[in-house]
Design brief:
By secondary structure, the protein is α+β, with helices and mostly antiparallel strands. Helices cover 51% and strands 14% of the residues. Strand 5 and strand 6 form a beta hairpin.
Length: 283
């Protein structure tokens, strides 16, 4: 929610009023207030409440009701002062907001329809169910600028120096504070020279200096494990997000490819985007 929307709700909450008991036959068209002849309906309140962040929606219902109603009353009174006074810029802004809302509604419907139990199960089987167990590694590293620095540190380690202490003292990346610890990672999560070095080690071993685009590394392999495929519930959100992304992209492609589109932007200077004065000249 924007800062302005937060201001509206915060002001309205501070002015919360007593709420009458709801009528049993109330509908979305039930008028809850009238401002200079303009009706505010229960449906408008419901839509606004759905757009609020969870922190506001968690408020007591009477406080939320009063706050939303106050907000709509205030906005209506202010908006009425603009009747017949909208600039061309105002009209374009409203048209843009309407277009964006309608486009968002189309994509929201497509995203919602894409996530079914059948689709989730199929996506799970495609991505995880048949996957072979993978080897994962727990390692630490020391990152320095030159091969000479890395080799000197390797000699200290071979002589009995503590890897973690040297990492804290000499390593140049964010893992230094934790003794160079990188945690668990699987294939493809590290750059190739680094991953190749890890694969060649036995638990407890420290590599010779290896170079990547980040500098020179000493890598210590702590332990390995075999990672089995996760259960469906563990990756449900990930799969749902991917299904929605695919559905949204497909819907956009479908509608734009089937639309009759004529582009007339040839020869228009992109710098005109900064010419606010054109809005004043628009009829």
């Amino acid at each position: 929610m924007s800062k302005l929307a937060g201001f509206w709700l915060g002001t309205a909450m501070a002015m919360a009023l007593a709420v009458p008991a709801a009528a049993q036959d109330a509908t979305a068209d039930t008028v809850v207030a009238t401002v200079n002849g303009t009706d505010i309906t229960l449906g408008e309140m419901i839509v606004l409440s759905e757009q609020l962040p969870e922190q506001y929606r968690a408020l007591p219902e009477d406080v939320l009701f009063s706050g939303i109603l106050d907000q709509l009353i205030q906005q209506t009174a202010l908006a009425q002062t603009m009747e017949g006074k909208l600039s061309r810029k105002d009209e374009i802004a409203l048209a843009n907001e309407r277009r964006a809302y309608m486009a968002s509604a189309v994509l929201s419907d497509a995203a919602d329809a894409a996530v079914t139990e059948e689709a989730l199960q199929q996506a799970y089987e495609t991505n995880f169910a048949g996957a072979e167990p993978t080897q994962e590694y727990n390692a630490a590293h020391i990152l320095v600028e030159t091969q000479e620095e890395a080799q000197a540190l390797k000699e200290e380690i071979d002589g009995g120096a503590d890897f973690a202490e040297l990492a804290r003292e000499h390593s140049s990346d964010g893992a230094a504070a934790g003794g160079g610890a990188l945690g668990w990672f699987g294939p493809g999560m590290m750059v190739q020279p680094f991953e190749d070095a890890v694969r060649a080690l036995e638990p407890g071993q420290v590599s010779d200096p290896i170079q990547t685009q980040f500098g020179w590394h000493l890598v210590k392999l702590n332990e390995t494990r075999v990672a089995e495929a996760p259960a469906l519930e563990e990756v449900r959100d990930e799969l749902a997000a991917e299904l929605q992304r695919t559905a949204i992209e497909a819907r956009i492609a479908e509608l734009t490819e089937s639309a009759e589109i004529t582009r007339n932007d040839e020869g228009i200077d992109p710098a005109l985007l900064r010419e606010q004065m054109l809005l004043d000249q628009a009829q």
